[in-house]
Each structure stands twice: as structure tokens, then as C-alpha cells.
Amino acid sequence: MKLVTWNVNSLRARLPRLLQLLEVERPDVVCLQETKAAAGAPFPLELAGAGYTAVGHGGGRWGGVAVLLGPGLQPDEVVAGLPGEPDPAEARWLEVDVGPLRVVSVYVPNGRAVGTPTFAAKLAFLDAAAERLAALRGRSLVVAGDVNIAPTDADLYDPAAFIGSTHVTPDERGRLGRLLEGGMVDAWRLLHPEETGFTWWDYRAGHFGRGLGMRIDLLLLSADLAGRLTGIRVARAYRKGPGPSDHAPLLATLDDPG
DNA sequence: ATGGCCAGCGATGCTGGA
After folding, report:
1. For residue A258, is pLDDT > 80?
2. I want to staple A69 with a disulfide (CB 3.0 to 4.6 A). Which of A36, A73, A198, A258 is the partner?
3. Quick one: which H or E segment has residue A188?
4. What angle do CA A253, A254, A258 make, to 5 degrees?
5. Does residue A18 lie within 7 Å of nucleic acid chain B, judged by its CB?
């Protein structure tokens, strides 16, 4: 089974690149973030044409998450929204049951600046996510998305450049740690303990070309699924070329259950 | 070479992203 998570920075704007990814990689499950699609907005017909069933949680002008399922897969239970989240209208959390798996696509708030109300809302969202994952403990669980936290300084191009900024504070990292309680595994780090694995690069100032990125998109797996992880990579090709997102897709492969 | 802001809204320049 092949899993993808990708902050597309607008589904509409990214559709050509998304269709390219679906055709080339043929993933089974795709978690999308920042679709910028309104609640109830129809998905582009091209997705169905490519063989994918889409489940969305719309967030209007900003935000929005979705899960795409490949041929032969259908959504069972769908839960949109996160109990206790600060602003449900931002549409940052979507759970979809796919066979024995519960798949979560999550887009954690940015937080903008430490000490602001939006930063407090980011922490509150993370608290709510930890509560929800505790409630889901024991299930075969995939939590995939843009967490807007660099887990450690090894996930930054230059730790000194982030002193005093969001994405690196103990408040944020501590809450990310709570998401990993109960045996959830950071899939990239499981197979790549040293390699940087950046998933986001600022559009500005040539950051991508200069290798100035961050690892803020994560695939978290419950322990049973982590044991089946055979590969994970950042598809940097989708950060290049015409009309890229500022995030690259993260692709993982799981062995079939034996 | 990991190459130099983008998307939405809406009609102009501002907001948000991280």
C-alpha cells in the first residue's frame, strides 16, 4: 500500500501537478492539506477520471483537508472536524476509515508569531489533537499532514535562523511529542534517522535551490503499521517545475499485512 | 546541483502562508 501526504497550497491551482503524481505514483491513499476549497465544493472531475474517490472537509479561502482513495478503495466511516478545535470552520482535521485503517489528514495552524492569539490557537489545536489520538489509541492509525512544527533542530536548515520564531518552540514540540504517545511513530525518522528530509521550502529568495527547507510534513503511524513500513521518500520533483506547491509530497510504502 | 513568492478574492492591493 502506498500512502502520500501533501500540502498542495490550493487544490485548484495544484490540480495539474496532483494529477501527475496520481498517474506516476498510483498511490492508494492521498492526504491533502490546504485545499483552499469551500465546504461542499465539488472536487474536480479529473480526480474521478484518474480513478480516485475524494473525501473533503472544506475550509473556504484558507485551510481545508481531503483524502483521496485509489481504485478499489472506498471510504467507510468519515469524521470531519476535531472535537475541541478552536475554529471548526478552518477545516483542519479529517478522518476516513479505509478498510482496517483510520486515516487522518491534518493541517495544523501556522501560529504566525509566538505569543499571539493565533499561536495560542495553534497550541489549543494540538492539545485537541492529542486528546483525539488518545481516544483512537489501539486502532491501526495513519496521521498524515502539515504539522507546522519542526520536530528537532535537525529538521531545520539553520536552527539559528529560527530563534524566537514559531515551529520550534518547546510549547509546540512538547505537544507534538504528545501526539506520538501511545506508540505512534514518525515514519520518516524511523527509516532515515540522520537524513534531513525537508518537505517545505519558502517560495522566496531561492530557498529551494539553496536547500533551505524544513521538515514540517509528517506521516505518523501506529506501531502495527510502522512495522510494515518498507520505504518513505520526499518527492522533491513536485517542488520543481511549473506551478509547484511550496511543500513536496511525502510518499510511504507499507507491506501488505502478513 | 534542492534555482530566486504564490493563491485567493476580485478588480487593487491586501491577507495568509511558515
Report:
1. no
2. A73
3. helix A187-191
4. 155
5. no
